[in-house]
Amino acid sequence: MNVILIRYGEIFLKGHNRKFFENILQKNINESLKEFPHELKKISGRYELSGYDVEQEKAIISKLTKIFGLHSLSVATKIETDYENIKKECLKINLGRQSFRITTNRASKIFPIKSMQVNREIGELVLENNPETHVNLHSPEVEIVIDIRENGYTYISTNDIQCAGGMPLGSAGKGLLLLSGGIDSPVAGYFLARRGLTIEAIHFHSYPYTSELAKQKVISLAKTMCDYLGSIKMHFISVTHVQEEIHKKCDGDFMITLLRRMMMRISERIARQNDAGALITGESLGQVASQTLQSINATNAVVDIPVFRPLIGFDKQDIMDVAHKIGTYEISIQPYEDCCTVFLPKNPVTKPKLEKVLREEAKLDIDTLLNESLASEEIMIIQK
Ligand code: ATP
Ligand code: MG
Predict the structure, then answer these.
(1) Residue of the nearest CA to atom 13 in ligand 1?
(2) What is the dihedral angle through the alpha carbons of 264, 284, 223, 168, rounded to the nearest 10 degrees?
(3) Which ligand is nearest to the CA of 185?
(4) Which CATH code is given to the segment(s) 174-383?
(5) Residue 233 Cα, ligand 2 centroid: separation in angstroms?
(6) Which of the 8 DSSP states describes residue 337?
(7) Ligand closest to the CA atom of residue 183
(8) Beta carbons within 8 Å of 110's beta carbon, 6+ residues apart
(9) Residues 186-204: what's their mean pLDDT?
(10) Which of 61, 155, 162, 209 could form a disulfide with 147 if both were Cys (CB 3.0 to 4.6 A apart)?
(11) Does the domain spanning 2-162 belong to CATH 3.90.640.10?
């Protein structure tokens, strides 16, 4: 019988609360595979997925590799443990010219033959049956794993498939991601979702200065992120009036600093209203004027909630590599304007002094602007 063996990663290190993580993981797997009939069973230290339609195996694997908390999987043949059975099964393996190695894991000590001997004997058998192959113990093209479990069954598989790693989504509480249309913020969200945070997202627009297409772009980004997140609750907030007021009343070079301070205040309010315990941004130290240490200090100063910046020490190229991997890059580079680019100053301050920021900000009616922006909230639930 064909099954998929699924191994989980870091949860393995958990002590007495491992059950908590396992339950969430199991729920997430079943949820992700809800359109495919299947049976999921926990066997010591891993899951066995069976009862699925082999035609759907590829699609199922594609789903599984995107579930946080899973380390790797392999398609395996499950047989009753018996040496003759094992040999018969291994004779079916067709390697062509690919090199191989046998790795036997004898979890069941009732099985009388030691792993090394199984490796040797089955190895010889496979060699005889595939005259063009050769053994390569260190970096084989195909690793044949013979997993002899305590449950009376042996699982034979070739080459593991890597999964997303991390911790089960939803096991670490909730974070509110400041999602712009750029390359960085989706990647930031990905990394923290991978640590188990449920993600909600907030996007600031300056409609009608920013277009409907810019909003559609953010929706497409969120949709793509649903590959990993399942669904995302999105909050759209207008900062048009905030930008107009800053433009009218303040020193233009402080536009971005002042706008970002408003974004942080609004985000903290939305986070609290939605039980999110942290904000998440895609900032990376020194990347642009608004991301120098002084700028980050100036924007961070207005909130009293943890702000996670998972990309803070990343180079742009590293961030782009991840964006490619998670499928957001091509959407992010579409050229629609972000609200930050409207009213963009020629010389944005790179080292804003807090007294000067406060002096400029004093020209604004912060509370009214904050409430106006909050009142503009539009909520959407985004799904694949
Ligand atoms: P990104 O590529 O994510 O757009 P960026 O390099 O353009 O980042 P900034 O514009 O300085 O950098 O923004 C830094 C962070 O602030 C973003 O990663 C995002 O978390 C947040 N942010 C910026 N603009 C918006 C917006 N319009 N709506 C929501 N969050 C935003
Ligand atoms: Mg941006």
Answers:
(1) 283
(2) -90
(3) 1
(4) 3.40.50.620
(5) 20
(6) P
(7) 1
(8) none
(9) 98
(10) 155
(11) no
